[in-house]
Design a protein that fits this description.
Layout lengths: L1 H12 L6 E10 L2 E10 L6 E10 L6 H4 E5 L3 E7 L2 E9 L7 E9 L7 E14 L2 E15 L1
Antiparallel strand pairs: 1-2, 1-9, 2-3, 3-4, 5-6, 6-7, 7-8, 8-9
């Protein structure tokens, strides 16, 4: 019985390894730098099963903890990958006891690896509220994404 189970497991493990692919996006544009990479399944909607990324904004008016942000899979708010390209929205709130703040990055791109896409970064910070309004910043630019 154990030999039979071992043989079945060996056959299943030796199948083709074409069940996953990946995405990557890079931008170094003006005051913002973005680097994103993730793993996607092939089939069933190209589910995003992993993601690592970083965002850096070079603007001294933005609080330090919102200028340099790391992203993981749990920060993916929306994701779509199909023949028309990649659509990705990342959202990360400030951690700790500081006043509310967040960074939202939206990427819309073809997946050819050329600069055929765009990104938009929105920063919202309640640390230094003046006249009841939070400090906000918005940046946008070109991005290059690739999917396999």
């Amino acid at each position: 019985m154990r030999l039979g189970v071992a043989m079945v497991m060996a056959v299943l493990a030796s199948g083709p390894a074409m069940a996953s692919g990946g995405i990557s996006c890079e931008a170094d544009y003006g005051n913002a730098r973005i680097s994103i990479s993730g793993g996607v399944s092939r089939g069933m909607g190209s589910a995003l099963f992993s993601l690592d990324g970083s965002l850096e904004v070079n603007d001294p008016e933005i609080a330090e903890d919102l200028r340099k942000v790391e992203f993981a899979r749990e920060h993916v708010a929306q994701y779509w990958l199909d023949g028309d390209g990649l659509k990705l929205k990342l959202y990360r709130e400030r951690e700790g006891d500081a006043p509310h703040g967040y960074v939202e990055a939206t990427i819309l791109s073809a997946t050819s690896g050329e600069d055929t896409g765009s990104f938009r970064i929105e920063v919202y910070d309640m640390t230094d509220v003046t006249d009841g309004e939070a400090k906000t910043a918005s940046l946008s630019g070109k991005i290059s994404c690739f999917a396999e």
